[in-house]
Amino acid sequence: MSKVFKNSWALFLGMGCIMMAYGFQGSLLGVRAVQEEFSLTSTGFMMSGYFVGYFIGAATIPSIISRVGHIRVFAAFASLASLVILIHSILVNPIVWFLLRVLTGISMVCIYTVAESWLNDRSSNKNRGSVLSIYMVVLYGSLGIGMFLLNFSTPKDFQPFILISVITSAALIPILLTKKKPPTFKSIKAMKLQELYNASPFGMVSSLFYGTIQSALFTLLAVYASSMNFTILEISIVTFLLAISGALAQFPIGKISDIYDRRKVIVISTFGAAIFAIIAIFVSKQMYLPGSLATSKTWFYIFFILFSFCSLPMFSLILAHTNDYISKDKFVAAGAGLQFAFGLGAMSGPFLCSIFMDLVGSNGFFIFLFFFHSIIGFFGIYRMKVRQTVDNPDSQFVAMPQTITPAGIELNPTTEHIEEPYSDKVKEILERKGVKYKKEDQQDQR
Questions:
Q1: Fewer CB within 10 Å: C terminus or N terminus of the chain?
Q2: Which CATH number does the domain housing residue 160 bear?
């Protein structure tokens, strides 16, 4: 463990700063949108821009990294993210903010890809699990801390936007000063959607709908809390609970899924999340009853924690379930395909959720979560009747953050490290030295 920190402390520190700024930014924009009296539909549209950018960036960033290199790309897009947040404080308009959120999404997927491919290069099969665990703790812990920074300034002022920019810029310092050489970037191709669907219909469909859930949950939670007249401190608490409780739930639920039928665990988890979403609606209404009839917000926090415990581990469960039906050599490609499906769903999540909230009020937020979690559950029940469970000894649950990229999925200790095929020039040099290379690599090169 100490060796992991020694080799990668600069990356962990830089990513900690990035996630702190990102957590602060998400809550700040949501609260500011309510204070600026953006309509709920406009707010949802604006927030969805991040996932549009994330989707665009995921398809274009690998080629940029291959041409320019890790450090320059990280510096460029971290600087872009730092610049973009400042423009939010100058041009307060939903359409402008949507475009800025697109740029933020592109920047963040670039940063994740660089960091995760770098971590993957520095890890071995012996310590991949440790690296991934530390990475998850850094991401979720920093995200939670960033959400509390909302308490140190007024969202309508320009100071919090400057603070986010400063924290994002600070992330560059440890990365740019590291002595370690950056890795050679390996572009990972995803499975075709048809092939992925044939391998695991439930995995692909649930990933699509879960992307819709997750994007709305993380972007509109602060909007929901603000519209329900939560104080800034209370908004910070509820967003912090989302990040931390979801991270803590990954390991116990994952362990259960390795023992019992994974589809049953997914179905129970998603229906559990749906039930706690409905309970949260009743509790939230009780909070504002007159006098002694009102209930404490503590009950809302409790049921929201239970919702997070059921909901947030689901992407890792879906990934593990999909791996149950494919061979080990396709684990990373399947993960990339699931991320693609997740991204398709994520682009529409905030906008669709805002329509629910616009039609039925603030609690449309939890009705939306209930609806899509239920869809996943019912489809899972249907698939269990159509297809029997298989036992794949190569597949097991590994906790993954929702932001994981294909490069990060390689950190899964159950996957094999993907080697790049030799180029013709390298093969010629190896042949001169009498070094043999694999025929598979020659076929890949052709």
A1: C
A2: 1.20.1250.20
DSSP 251: H
* 97 CB-near residues (< 8 Å, 6+ apart): 29, 33, 46, 49, 88, 91
Any domain includes 428: no
Contact indicator for 44, 351 with CB cutoff of 8 Å: yes
In a domain, 446, yes or no: no
Instruction: Indicate the number of domains in the chain.
Output: 1
For the chain, first and last CA: distance in Å? 41
Whether 113 contacts 62, CB under 8 Å: yes
pLDDT digits (tens, 9 = 90+) for 296-341: 788 889 999 999 999 998 988 888 888 888 877 777 788 888 888 8
Global pTM value: 0.84
The full length of the chain comes to 446
Q: Which of 225, 237, 300, 306 is nearest to 35 (CA)?
A: 225
What local confidence, expressed as pLDDT, does residue 83 receive?
93
Query: Side chain identity at 68, as an amino acid letter?
Result: V
Residue 206 makes CB contacts below 8 A (sequence gap 6+) with: 266, 270, 314, 318, 376, 379, 380
CA distance 426 to 432: 10
Joined together, the tokens standing for residue 326 give: 């494919």
Residue 109 CA to residue 376 CA, distance in Å, equals 26
Measured N-to-C along each axis, helices 297-311 and 262-286 cross at an angle, to the nearest 10 degrees, of 160
> What distance in Å separates the CA atoms of residue 399 and residue 346, rounded to the nearest whole number?
20
DSSP assignment letter at 150: G
Question: Does some domain include residue 273?
Answer: yes
**Residue 442, domain member (yes or no):** no
- d(Cα 387, Cα 200) in Å, to the nearest integer? 10
**b/e per residue, 106-144, with b = 16+ CB within 10 A?**
bbbbbbbbbbbbbbbbebeeebbbbbbbbbbebbbbbbb
